[in-house]
C-alpha cells in the first residue's frame, strides 16, 4: 500500500498548510557562518555524512576521522580530506557537476546533530594534501567547502532511534556478513567466504 493518491501533497503551499508555520527557534538558529558555538560541535565530531547531487543522481557518503572529520579554516570555510575508499568517487563526480553539498555531523553520545549547507570545490594542492596526511599517507584530494548555512538539529531523531544506547546495539553476527552480501548480490561472482577472511587485514592495511 502506497497511500490514496487524493491525499498526495504535490505543491509547496499544500505542504506548508499541512505542517504549519516554522517556530522562531527553528528559524533563528540558522546562520550563514560557523559561530563558535557551532564550531565546538564540529570539532567534536569524528563522523559526518556528505550529501551531493548530480546528473547521475543523489549520493550520501559517510566520512570519518579521529580528531575531527573536517578542519575549520575560518567561519565560512571547511576542509574535508578525501581518504582512501573504493574509487567510485560518486560524491566527487557530483561536485564536478553541481558544487552544492550538505553535511550532517554526529558527536558520539550527543543527541543534537549539526547541519551545514554550502558549495564545494575539489583540490589536489600538494600543500593541502600534506597538511592532512594521516599515518604518513596523503588524502587523494580535499574538499574546500564554502559555507552558506549552519544550524543544529534537535535530539528527537537520536532519542527515538536510541542510536547511542549500547543495549540497542545490533550484534554483527546477527546480520549477513559483508562477504555474504557481496556473494548474494553478485550471484556468486564474488567468493563471500574468501572476502570475509581477507577483510580484517585489508581494512587494517588500507585504512588511510
TrEMBL record:
Pfam family membership, one: PNPOx_N
Gene3D superfamilies the record matches: Electron Transport, Fmn-binding Protein, Chain A
SUPFAM superfamilies registered for this protein in UniProt: FMN-binding split barrel
Domain Pyridoxamine 5'-phosphate oxidase N-terminal: 35-154
Protein name per its UniProtKB record: Pyridoxamine 5'-phosphate oxidase
Amino acid at each position: 500500500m502506497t497511500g490514496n493518491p487524493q491525499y498526495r501533497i504535490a505543491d509547496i503551499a499544500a505542504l506548508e498548510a499541512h505542517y504549519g508555520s516554522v517556530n522562531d527557534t527553528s528559524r533563528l538558529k540558522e546562520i550563514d557562518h560557523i559561530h563558535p558555538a557551532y564550531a565546538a560541535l564540529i570539532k567534536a565530531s569524528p563522523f559526518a555524512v556528505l550529501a551531493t547531487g548530480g546528473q547521475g543522481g543523489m549520493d550520501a557518503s559517510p566520512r570519518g576521522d579521529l580528531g575531527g572529520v573536517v578542519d575549520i579554516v575560518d567561519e565560512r570555510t571547511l576542509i574535508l580530506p578525501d581518504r582512501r575508499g573504493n574509487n567510485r568517487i560518486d560524491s566527487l563526480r557530483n561536485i564536478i557537476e553541481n558544487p552544492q553539498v550538505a553535511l550532517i555531523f554526529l558527536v558520539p553520545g550527543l543527541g543534537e546533530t549539526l547541519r551545514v549547507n554550502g558549495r564545494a570545490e575539489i583540490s589536489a594542492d600538494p600543500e593541502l594534501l600534506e597538511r592532512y596526511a594521516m599515518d604518513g599517507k596523503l588524502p587523494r584530494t580535499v574538499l574546500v567547502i564554502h559555507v552558506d548555512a549552519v544550524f543544529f538539529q534537535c535530539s528527537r531523531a537520536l532519542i527515538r532511534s536510541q542510536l547511542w544506547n549500547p543495549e540497542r546495539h545490533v550484534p554483527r553476527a546477527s546480520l549477513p556478513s559483508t562477504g555474504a552480501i557481496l556473494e548474494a548480490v553478485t550471484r556468486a561472482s564474488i567468493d563471500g567466504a574468501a572476502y570475509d577472511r581477507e577483510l580484517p587485514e585489508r581494512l587494517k592495511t588500507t585504512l588511510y
